[in-house]
Amino acid sequence: METSTSSGNPLQDLSDNLADIVERVGQRVVAVHGRHHLPSTGVIWRHGVVVTAAHTLRRQDGINVTLADGRTVAAVLAGQDTGTDLAVLKLDGLDLDPVESGDARSLKSGHLVLAVARADGLGASADFGVVGAVGGPWRTWRGGQLDAFVRLDGGLRAGFSGAALTDMRGQVMGICTSALARGAGILIPTATVARITDELLAKGHVSRGYLGVGTQTVNLSEAWMKKMTLSSDRGLLIVSLAANGPAEKAGVLIGDVLVELDGEPCKDIDDLHAALSAERIGQPLKIGLIRGGERHECTVILGERPQRNSCR
Q1: End position of a domain, from candidates 157, 184, 204
Q2: Predicted structure pTM score
Q3: Structural domain span for residue 123
Q4: For the segment 124-168, what is each residue's pLDDT rounded down to a tens digit?
Q5: pLDDT digit string (tens) for 211-267?
Q6: Is 112 within the bounds of a domain?
Q7: How far apart are alpha carbons 147 and 188 in whole angstroms?
Q8: What sequence ranges are listed for the domain PDZ (predicted)?
């Protein structure tokens, strides 16, 4: 990889390096026209494949992308996953070089990063900042699993959802989204992008386990905890049931309080999501409930979550 010649001025060298990264990565960043008015950004991830933030697409047909050379071409939506906020577009007949990807798990809080986006008529756009916080694998509020948690220091500018996030070597660590945390940009790591892209290209959606319930967190009284030997003071109140869904078939009722999954406490939606992995589809799940002040148990055979369904 080429680097700028040192000028003897550290600030000028940093400035030249940033400009080089924007120019290089910008050749593999496109503007995605999948909503009215402002386009979002997409990244050429593989030959003929663009990834972008799913929440920026307001339609499934008639999507176009503008390339670095100014051409606007048609794109076909291969699939999208709201859990990780990823969408995959195919550019038939175009063999464009993909970005050079790196490992987002190498990022640390305080590392300098650069988001590279594209808007019509403006060429490549850049936003310079730092990594605000990092962590291990993270489950989103939509039920998707990110291979690492990377929060950017601040929100994203308009049009920067789907932008490539690079380190100071110009390696792309993943793509940015504003949809997974309120008021902050989140990185969808390269490992997650690769995994979800494979699944979307193969079958158009991402498989997740499905119980068929709508829930809200409730506090449990000390009397209930003592009577039923519960280790947590919280559970999930069943507020809705999908018609003919796995939970309804197993006899779960609206008003039941879900407190255990296969013998482990179920105190919030994260615990429920963790039990609904794709590997569990078609397998029995033993659930513990409180019904009418008494302990109740039943076994549910997990289904595959239908697309665009609000129940878990």
Answers
A1: 204
A2: 0.84
A3: 1-204
A4: 999 999 999 999 999 998 889 999 999 999 888 888 999 999 999
A5: 999 999 999 999 888 888 888 999 999 999 999 999 999 999 999 999 999 989 999
A6: yes
A7: 8
A8: 228-293
Number of structural domains (the chain) is: 2
pLDDT score of 5? 64
- Of 195, 61, 29, 268, nearest to 125 by C-alpha is 29
Per the prediction, the chain carries an average pLDDT of 91
CATH number at residue 146: 2.40.10.120
Contact between residue 191 and residue 169 where contact means Cβ atoms under 8 Å apart: no
Residue 309 lies in a domain: no
Q: Percent of the chain, pLDDT > 70?
A: 96
If asked whether residues 294 and 169 sit together in one domain, one would say no
Residue 164, pLDDT score: 98
DSSP state letters, the chain: ---PPP-S-HHHHHHHHHHHHHHHHHTTEEEEE-SSSS-EEEEEEETTEEEEEGGG---SSSEEEE-TTS-EEEEEEEEEETTTTEEEEE-TT--PPPP-B--GGG--TT-EEEEEEEETTTEEEEEEEEEEEEES-EE-TTS-EESSEEEESSPPPTT-TT-EEE-TTS-EEEEEESSSSTTS-EEEEHHHHHHHHHHHHHHSS---EE--EEEEEEE--HHHHHHHT-S-SEEEEEEEE-TT-HHHHTT--TT-EEEEETTEE--SHHHHHHH--GGGTTSEEEEEEEETTEEEEEEEE-EEPPTT----
- 73, amino acid identity: V
Angle at 151 between CA 149 and CA 154, to 5 degrees: 170
Write out pLDDT tens, residues 9-51: 988 988 999 999 999 999 999 999 998 878 999 999 999 999 9
Place of tokens 């972008």: 52
Q: Which of 204, 236, 252 is the endpoint of a domain?
A: 204
